[in-house]
Fold:
Amino acid sequence: MASGAQLSVTELRRSARHPVHFRVAAEHRRLGEIMVDVANISAHGFMVSNVLDLGRGERITIRLPVAGRIEAHLIWNTGDRAGFQFERIIRLDDFTAMMTALQPNPRLRSER
Structure:
């Protein structure tokens, strides 16, 4: 039996990332509720800027504006930063609405 994350999409680290400062509660099966600081996000995943005691392939579930609850798998972890890939891709219209909610000031939004 295979171990680790069974990802539904290929690893897409080259996706356009949008800088954000968003603190959100995440659910983890072993640690329970943990707080993560999302530093950047794309339709495929996100990076957090705080220390996490998680190994590659571990899953968390977060709740995002517009997109709702979404599961993510840890792709990489350097100790003070970690990259997660979403279980599913966020649709473009939902992603655009989510970015408007996360960055209500139009001057802070990047061009899409």
About this structure: The CA atoms of residues 38 and 83 lie 10 Å apart. Confidence is low (pLDDT under 50) at residues 8-12.
